UniProtKB/TrEMBL annotation:
The organism of origin for this protein: Streptomyces thermolilacinus SPC6
Name used for this protein in its record: DUF1330 domain-containing protein
Domain DUF1330: 2-97
Ranges in a coiled coil: none
InterPro entries per the UniProt record, alphabetical: Dimeric_a/b-barrel, DUF1330
Annotated signal peptide: none
Length: 118
């Protein structure tokens, strides 16, 4: 099942040279773990609810294990400070849903679990 690294980054108006170096090199750290960008910055976006002044990043991996191993890898950990020294943000790793996922079945299971008869 796919997994995702999701970043909600708060870049400065002008990106520091170290951040640009990070951007130039980050794909090389993703490749051994099957990671690829789905969203990277997305200058065009339409905020429908709330506020979103940050820069979104979404990277897909074959599994949560791949995502964890990428983030913990020596190559990525060596590169990471080039971004974190100059850009705040929130990052998480999260499982996706399996093929054929049905949100109605999820709702039904939650209803059943919350039923007083359970």
């Amino acid at each position: 099942m796919p997994a995702y690294a999701i970043g909600n980054l708060r870049p400065a108006q002008t990106l520091h040279d170290e951040v640009l170096t990070y951007i130039e090199r980050v794909q090389g750290t993703l490749d051994p773990f099957g990671g690829r960008f789905l969203v990277h910055g997305a200058p065009e976006r339409e905020v429908l609810e709330g506020e979103w002044p940050q820069s979104p990043v979404i990277i897909v991996f074959p599994s949560l294990d791949h995502a964890r191993r990428w983030y913990a890898s020596e190559d990525y950990q060596a590169l990471l400070p080039l971004r974190t020294r100059h850009m705040e943000g929130d990052v998480l790793l999260i499982d996706g849903v399996p093929d054929g996922y049905d949100p109605a079945k999820t709702a039904a299971a939650i209803r059943a679990a919350q039923s007083p008869e359970s």
